Please model this.
Amino acid sequence: MGLTHVYPVVSRRAAGVSIGINLNTNNACNWACVYCQVPNLTRGSAPDLDLELLRAELDFMLSEATRGRFMETYVAEGLRRLNDVAFSGNGEPTSARLFEEAVNLAIAALEVHGLKGKIKLVVITNGSFALQPDVQRAFHAMASANGEVWFKVDRGRTEDIQRINNIHLSPGLILKRLAAAASACPTWVQTCMVTWDGAPPSGQEVDAYLDLLRQALVRQIPLRGVLLYSLARPSHQPEAARIAALPLPWLEALGARIEALGLAVKVTP
Ligand code: SF4
Model:
Protein backbone atom coordinates (compact mmCIF):
# COMPACT_ATOMS: atom_id res chain seq x y z
CA MET A 1 0.00 0.00 0.00
CA GLY A 2 1.55 3.31 -1.06
CA LEU A 3 0.79 5.79 1.71
CA THR A 4 0.30 9.53 1.35
CA HIS A 5 -0.08 10.75 4.92
CA VAL A 6 1.12 8.04 7.29
CA TYR A 7 4.65 6.72 7.77
CA PRO A 8 6.47 4.64 10.38
CA VAL A 9 9.67 5.84 12.04
CA VAL A 10 11.83 3.35 13.93
CA SER A 11 13.83 5.08 16.65
CA ARG A 12 16.72 3.40 18.45
CA ARG A 13 16.87 6.36 20.81
CA ALA A 14 13.22 5.99 21.82
CA ALA A 15 13.51 2.20 21.60
CA GLY A 16 10.36 1.89 19.57
CA VAL A 17 8.24 2.91 16.62
CA SER A 18 6.47 6.19 16.01
CA ILE A 19 3.70 6.51 13.45
CA GLY A 20 4.01 9.89 11.77
CA ILE A 21 1.13 11.76 10.14
CA ASN A 22 2.08 14.20 7.38
CA LEU A 23 -0.65 16.70 6.56
CA ASN A 24 1.75 18.90 4.55
CA THR A 25 2.15 16.70 1.50
CA ASN A 26 3.01 19.85 -0.49
CA ASN A 27 6.15 20.46 1.64
CA ALA A 28 4.72 23.84 2.64
CA CYS A 29 5.31 25.59 5.95
CA ASN A 30 4.66 29.15 7.09
CA TRP A 31 8.22 29.17 8.58
CA ALA A 32 11.54 28.31 6.93
CA CYS A 33 13.87 27.19 9.72
CA VAL A 34 17.51 27.01 8.68
CA TYR A 35 17.83 23.46 10.00
CA CYS A 36 14.61 22.14 8.41
CA GLN A 37 15.01 18.67 6.91
CA VAL A 38 12.12 19.03 4.47
CA PRO A 39 13.40 18.99 0.87
CA ASN A 40 11.97 21.56 -1.54
CA LEU A 41 10.35 23.43 1.34
CA THR A 42 7.99 26.19 0.21
CA ARG A 43 6.11 28.86 2.13
CA GLY A 44 2.45 28.12 2.61
CA SER A 45 -0.13 25.98 4.36
CA ALA A 46 -1.09 22.34 4.27
CA PRO A 47 -3.24 21.45 1.25
CA ASP A 48 -6.85 20.28 1.38
CA LEU A 49 -7.07 17.04 3.28
CA ASP A 50 -8.85 13.86 2.25
CA LEU A 51 -10.04 12.65 5.66
CA GLU A 52 -11.19 9.27 4.34
CA LEU A 53 -7.73 8.61 2.92
CA LEU A 54 -6.11 9.57 6.21
CA ARG A 55 -8.54 7.35 8.12
CA ALA A 56 -7.83 4.34 5.86
CA GLU A 57 -4.05 4.81 6.04
CA LEU A 58 -4.00 5.23 9.80
CA ASP A 59 -6.21 2.20 10.25
CA PHE A 60 -3.90 0.18 8.00
CA MET A 61 -0.73 1.29 9.80
CA LEU A 62 -2.15 0.76 13.29
CA SER A 63 -3.34 -2.72 12.26
CA GLU A 64 0.11 -3.54 10.93
CA ALA A 65 1.83 -2.21 14.03
CA THR A 66 -0.45 -3.89 16.55
CA ARG A 67 -0.78 -7.26 14.82
CA GLY A 68 2.95 -7.50 14.58
CA ARG A 69 3.38 -8.16 10.85
CA PHE A 70 5.04 -4.83 10.20
CA MET A 71 7.03 -5.05 13.41
CA GLU A 72 8.32 -8.55 12.75
CA THR A 73 9.17 -7.87 9.13
CA TYR A 74 10.82 -4.48 9.39
CA VAL A 75 11.70 -3.72 13.01
CA ALA A 76 14.63 -5.18 14.93
CA GLU A 77 13.91 -7.10 18.10
CA GLY A 78 13.93 -4.85 21.12
CA LEU A 79 12.42 -1.97 19.14
CA ARG A 80 9.02 -3.58 18.46
CA ARG A 81 7.09 -1.23 20.66
CA LEU A 82 4.64 1.39 19.40
CA ASN A 83 5.55 4.65 21.17
CA ASP A 84 3.27 7.25 19.71
CA VAL A 85 1.31 8.69 16.84
CA ALA A 86 2.72 12.09 15.90
CA PHE A 87 1.54 14.89 13.62
CA SER A 88 5.02 15.67 12.36
CA GLY A 89 5.11 16.04 8.63
CA ASN A 90 6.70 18.24 6.01
CA GLY A 91 5.37 21.55 7.27
CA GLU A 92 3.24 23.05 10.02
CA PRO A 93 0.43 20.56 10.77
CA THR A 94 -1.86 23.05 12.51
CA SER A 95 -1.99 25.08 9.28
CA ALA A 96 -4.25 22.36 7.84
CA ARG A 97 -7.82 23.62 7.52
CA LEU A 98 -9.09 20.28 8.85
CA PHE A 99 -6.48 19.84 11.58
CA GLU A 100 -9.15 19.50 14.28
CA GLU A 101 -10.95 16.84 12.24
CA ALA A 102 -7.63 15.02 11.68
CA VAL A 103 -6.93 15.00 15.44
CA ASN A 104 -10.41 13.65 16.22
CA LEU A 105 -9.95 11.02 13.53
CA ALA A 106 -6.59 9.97 15.01
CA ILE A 107 -8.11 9.71 18.50
CA ALA A 108 -10.95 7.56 17.13
CA ALA A 109 -8.44 5.32 15.34
CA LEU A 110 -6.42 4.88 18.54
CA GLU A 111 -9.63 3.92 20.35
CA VAL A 112 -10.62 1.36 17.71
CA HIS A 113 -7.20 -0.28 18.01
CA GLY A 114 -7.27 -0.29 21.81
CA LEU A 115 -4.45 2.27 22.01
CA LYS A 116 -6.20 5.41 23.24
CA GLY A 117 -4.51 6.57 26.42
CA LYS A 118 -1.89 3.82 26.11
CA ILE A 119 0.42 5.50 23.62
CA LYS A 120 1.02 9.21 23.14
CA LEU A 121 -0.59 11.40 20.52
CA VAL A 122 1.89 14.17 19.73
CA VAL A 123 1.74 17.30 17.60
CA ILE A 124 5.02 18.95 16.66
CA THR A 125 4.21 22.58 15.97
CA ASN A 126 5.71 26.02 15.59
CA GLY A 127 2.71 27.32 17.50
CA SER A 128 1.63 29.85 14.87
CA PHE A 129 -2.02 28.85 15.00
CA ALA A 130 -2.30 28.01 18.70
CA LEU A 131 -4.69 30.90 19.34
CA GLN A 132 -7.19 29.76 16.70
CA PRO A 133 -10.40 28.31 18.23
CA ASP A 134 -10.30 25.15 16.09
CA VAL A 135 -6.67 24.47 17.02
CA GLN A 136 -7.51 25.12 20.67
CA ARG A 137 -10.33 22.56 20.46
CA ALA A 138 -7.96 20.08 18.81
CA PHE A 139 -5.39 20.54 21.59
CA HIS A 140 -8.10 20.05 24.22
CA ALA A 141 -9.18 16.84 22.48
CA MET A 142 -5.57 15.64 22.47
CA ALA A 143 -5.31 16.30 26.20
CA SER A 144 -8.06 13.74 26.75
CA ALA A 145 -6.13 11.15 24.73
CA ASN A 146 -2.67 11.17 26.34
CA GLY A 147 -1.70 14.00 24.01
CA GLU A 148 1.32 16.28 24.05
CA VAL A 149 2.15 19.46 22.18
CA TRP A 150 5.81 19.95 21.29
CA PHE A 151 6.03 23.69 20.78
CA LYS A 152 9.00 25.12 18.90
CA VAL A 153 10.87 27.91 20.68
CA ASP A 154 14.39 28.25 19.30
CA ARG A 155 15.43 31.76 20.30
CA GLY A 156 14.28 34.63 22.49
CA ARG A 157 15.03 37.76 20.44
CA THR A 158 13.20 38.86 17.31
CA GLU A 159 16.45 39.17 15.31
CA ASP A 160 17.60 35.66 16.30
CA ILE A 161 14.16 34.19 15.51
CA GLN A 162 14.29 35.93 12.12
CA ARG A 163 17.72 34.39 11.35
CA ILE A 164 16.97 30.86 12.62
CA ASN A 165 13.28 30.46 11.80
CA ASN A 166 12.99 33.01 8.96
CA ILE A 167 9.90 34.54 10.51
CA HIS A 168 9.29 37.93 12.09
CA LEU A 169 7.98 37.18 15.55
CA SER A 170 8.12 38.92 18.92
CA PRO A 171 8.86 37.06 22.16
CA GLY A 172 5.58 38.43 23.54
CA LEU A 173 3.54 36.73 20.84
CA ILE A 174 5.43 33.45 21.36
CA LEU A 175 4.50 33.58 25.06
CA LYS A 176 0.86 34.27 24.23
CA ARG A 177 0.72 31.31 21.87
CA LEU A 178 2.65 29.10 24.28
CA ALA A 179 0.20 29.96 27.07
CA ALA A 180 -2.72 29.07 24.79
CA ALA A 181 -1.21 25.70 23.87
CA ALA A 182 -0.16 24.78 27.41
CA SER A 183 -3.53 25.69 28.89
CA ALA A 184 -5.20 23.29 26.44
CA CYS A 185 -2.83 20.31 26.42
CA PRO A 186 0.38 19.16 28.17
CA THR A 187 3.10 21.10 26.36
CA TRP A 188 6.86 20.72 25.98
CA VAL A 189 9.02 23.48 24.56
CA GLN A 190 11.14 22.08 21.76
CA THR A 191 14.41 23.90 21.06
CA CYS A 192 17.00 23.35 18.34
CA MET A 193 20.42 24.95 18.90
CA VAL A 194 23.02 25.00 16.12
CA THR A 195 26.32 26.69 15.32
CA TRP A 196 26.23 29.61 12.87
CA ASP A 197 29.29 30.13 10.67
CA GLY A 198 31.20 27.86 13.03
CA ALA A 199 30.32 29.68 16.25
CA PRO A 200 27.88 28.56 18.94
CA PRO A 201 24.97 30.86 19.86
CA SER A 202 26.31 34.01 21.54
CA GLY A 203 25.96 34.69 25.25
CA GLN A 204 23.32 37.34 24.55
CA GLU A 205 21.42 34.97 22.28
CA VAL A 206 21.36 32.27 24.95
CA ASP A 207 20.48 34.75 27.71
CA ALA A 208 17.53 36.05 25.67
CA TYR A 209 16.30 32.49 25.11
CA LEU A 210 16.57 31.70 28.83
CA ASP A 211 14.80 34.95 29.60
CA LEU A 212 11.88 33.90 27.43
CA LEU A 213 11.61 30.63 29.39
CA ARG A 214 11.86 32.59 32.63
CA GLN A 215 9.01 34.84 31.52
CA ALA A 216 6.92 31.77 30.71
CA LEU A 217 7.42 30.60 34.29
CA VAL A 218 6.64 34.07 35.70
CA ARG A 219 3.39 33.96 33.74
CA GLN A 220 2.75 30.52 35.22
CA ILE A 221 2.50 28.84 31.84
CA PRO A 222 2.30 25.16 32.85
CA LEU A 223 5.17 23.71 30.80
CA ARG A 224 6.18 20.06 31.03
CA GLY A 225 9.77 21.00 30.28
CA VAL A 226 12.16 21.52 27.40
CA LEU A 227 13.25 19.08 24.69
CA LEU A 228 16.69 20.37 23.76
CA TYR A 229 18.49 19.09 20.70
CA SER A 230 20.84 20.02 17.87
CA LEU A 231 21.12 19.11 14.22
CA ALA A 232 20.33 15.39 13.93
CA ARG A 233 20.25 15.18 10.12
CA PRO A 234 21.46 17.57 7.42
CA SER A 235 19.36 20.63 6.64
CA HIS A 236 17.81 20.91 3.18
CA GLN A 237 17.66 24.72 3.33
CA PRO A 238 19.87 27.35 1.62
CA GLU A 239 21.57 28.10 4.97
CA ALA A 240 22.67 24.45 5.39
CA ALA A 241 26.36 25.24 4.86
CA ARG A 242 26.31 27.90 7.61
CA ILE A 243 25.02 25.65 10.39
CA ALA A 244 26.27 22.55 12.21
CA ALA A 245 25.47 20.46 15.25
CA LEU A 246 26.63 21.58 18.70
CA PRO A 247 28.59 19.14 20.87
CA LEU A 248 26.75 17.32 23.63
CA PRO A 249 28.63 19.12 26.48
CA TRP A 250 27.44 22.49 25.12
CA LEU A 251 23.84 21.25 25.06
CA GLU A 252 24.18 19.75 28.53
CA ALA A 253 25.53 23.02 29.90
CA LEU A 254 22.53 24.87 28.50
CA GLY A 255 20.28 22.10 29.82
CA ALA A 256 21.68 22.68 33.31
CA ARG A 257 20.85 26.39 33.04
CA ILE A 258 17.30 25.54 31.97
CA GLU A 259 16.95 23.12 34.89
CA ALA A 260 18.17 25.85 37.20
CA LEU A 261 15.10 27.85 36.14
CA GLY A 262 12.95 25.02 37.44
CA LEU A 263 12.12 23.20 34.20
CA ALA A 264 12.67 19.55 33.31
CA VAL A 265 15.04 19.05 30.36
CA LYS A 266 15.63 16.20 27.94
CA VAL A 267 18.81 16.68 25.92
CA THR A 268 19.29 14.88 22.61
CA PRO A 269 22.56 15.43 20.71
S1 SF4 B 1 8.49 24.85 11.52
FE1 SF4 B 1 9.16 22.73 11.21
S2 SF4 B 1 8.45 22.22 9.11
FE2 SF4 B 1 8.35 24.44 9.33
S3 SF4 B 1 10.29 25.17 8.50
FE3 SF4 B 1 10.56 24.93 10.71
S4 SF4 B 1 11.38 22.86 10.99
FE4 SF4 B 1 10.53 22.97 8.90
Notes: The chain has eight helices and twelve strands.
